[in-house]
What does this fold into?
Amino acid sequence: MKLLEIYELEKIMEQHTERLIRLAFYYVRDLQCAEDIVQDVFIKFYDHQQNYEERGELRAYLSKLVTNKSKDYLRSWTYRKIQVQQKIFAKQPVIRRDMLVQQDEQTLIENAILALPLKQREVLIYFYFEELSVMEIAELLSIPESTVKTRLRRGRELLKPKLQHIEWEVLLHE
Amino acid sequence: MSKVDVTVIRDLSESKKRVIGNVVQHIEQRDNKKRVWRWQYSVISVFFTACIGLFFYSQLQLDNKLLLSSNDLPILDEDEMSTMLNAYNPQSEQSRNELFQTMIEMDAYYAYALSKGIDINHKLEDKDRLMSKQNLEDDHFKKKLANLELSVDEYVEKYIEPFNIKGSARNELLKDYQKRYENSFPLHAYLGVKKEAMDYLTAKYVDRISYLKQKYQFSLDPKDAYMSGTKYKTGYVVAIEGDRFLVVSGEVKDLIGHLSNEEMINQKENGIWYPLHEVKDKITVGNMVSVTYSMQERLGEYGFVANLDEIKIEK
It folds into this structure.
């Protein structure tokens, strides 16, 4: 394949960066780390363009790279170290009253999903936020469709008690 | 409920700009860097040759653990390094470097605090512990420990509790540092203490560290650790105070001395505070500098506090 020029990479980044940062954030739950992950993914993509076959869909390919990198990060010693450091520099969260008032139901739902264990969190993210089908999620995560369905069901069960007063499935499809 | 605030990803336009800018700059600057590295290979070869010589000398000292005094914890301990390496089994070179750098960093805090005569608490309460048994409760990790014939309890007693005590030494050093630099930002206080402790350890135990580097093949250069995420900034040094200096991009030279630091940051909608220790005698207000950095924390609407990986004074 013809190798990309930087300006072509910039066009791709224009199109995909925000979505990919959001995706990485759903895994690592830290904006700075999510930015770093996406930055590294684009550099890797640029350096190893020959690994990308044009017949594949770029969106899915980049999503897969971000997912893998995010999982690597969660497994890494760095992540454990940062958890420890956060404990050292634990700041009192600055929550302004107006922020609390403004925290809408969508935010509550997303926060509840972010609090789920990784296995359930990732399938819910792909299903509701990325709007992928069960089959597509199974392919992306290299797991059987039945496992995706089980994790979706378990995720919904875990969300129920936290979101008792919210029609959360309706809101996610608005 | 999670402590994570999901509202930070509502508007990602600034994040997007940062990522695209960093990727493009990284790719463009890489060719220049590659040229710079060529002469460094020969320096590294000389360095490793020197390490081999030091290895034989070090062998004579390694039968016993390196104890600072009879009641103290061992530092630069091979047993600890081997166990941690096997328990965490880092898959990349960066992860491996990160692991060794962390262990040596913690040893540095402990040795440096003792050298300063700081009293370190060896009997910690739960609230003082950086890492507890709960941090290790995952099946995958338990399996790794089982392969090493260690239970979680044994691992905690032998390795995590000393780690926590070394963390307590760091906290004492941070308190000491913050007496010297009262308004220091937490990130800069951490980096300042880390530099002082590492300078002490690497000077005092040069042979031992060379031996360990040779044996375990790791790098102590933070740039060789995981998640570099290098970022770049070019701008003017507009203030130097305490343990930090402020760099603002844009047409700011004529504003220096006329606006407060905060006014400058707000008017130019950017500004990053960097730690001063490494460059105290090299920069002055008004210098134009190009900085690379990899850690940052937000400060107000437009400002950041960051670390400093490299700096080039342009004029």
